[in-house]
Design a protein that fits this description.
Blueprint: H1 3-23, E1 31-35, E2 38-41, H2 42-58, E3 63-66, E4 70-71, E5 81-89, H3 91-95, E6 102-109, E7 112-120, E8 125-130, E9 135-137, E10 140-141, E11 154-157, H4 167-180, E12 183-185, H5 190-198, E13 204-207, H6 212-224, E14 228-230, E15 244-247, H7 249-259
Parallel strand pairs: 3-5, 11-12, 11-13
Antiparallel strand pairs: 1-2, 3-4, 5-6, 6-7, 7-8, 8-9, 9-10, 13-15, 14-15
Amino acid sequence: MHPMLNTAIKAARRGAAIINRASFDLDRLTVTEKNHNDFVTEVDSAAEQAIIDVLKNAYPDHAILAEESGASANLHDENENVWIIDPLDGTTNFIHGFPQYCVSIALQQRGQITQAVVYDPTRNDLFTATKGAGAYLNEKRIRVTRRDKIADALIGTGFPYSNLQKLDEYLKMFRIMTEKSAGLRRPGAAALDLAYVAAGRLDGFFEKGLQPWDMAAGSLLITEAGGIMGTFAGESDYLYKGDVIAGTPKVFAQMVALLAPFAK
């Protein structure tokens, strides 16, 4: 295992330990609303700091881009190594005791994601990938499914809860995908949804308005598992554009054909 991936796994487990302890006493959480239906708890912040501490202890010169604390001071100093962190993807699920959330950590080197960890503490599912070395779930190699028709595909998605002005557009996409696919699911944690595409639990995924920390780790898992990820127009610059489609090669192409009219 790559030493940087090993460090990311250690960091993810350290953050997850904080999340697990808090999950036993959810009524005592202090919850703050960042935006409409977009919540943060002290658990998010504590888990993020624990993750950063592990990474900075191992790699003090690396930059950080994290959901709660933002960018480290050296992010824009032409730093070749950037850790992209979501300490608790699926916070709304977490505060309701709905067991669908995860820790997501990725390493971006010279603009490319090279290491990825998505850890689901409720199931002890550890998704990992190193660029060029495949994707794994609990140390077993994973691949996207062989489904090649969207009519047979189970598709994941996410609602634009932080921008309800776009809800009408989303409902149009929702209708199209509901009619064309075998089923549509909205579990509520994009990083975990992407890991599920890589592991063959979903055949595709689409969402608008995501942040880099929602997608970075999942993107490497998917590509290393034989899938494709791109914008609604099928282009590769999704990480900082925020609109993404992922899936098996043929399902991806069919999703792009259906959703391209909704591209930015």
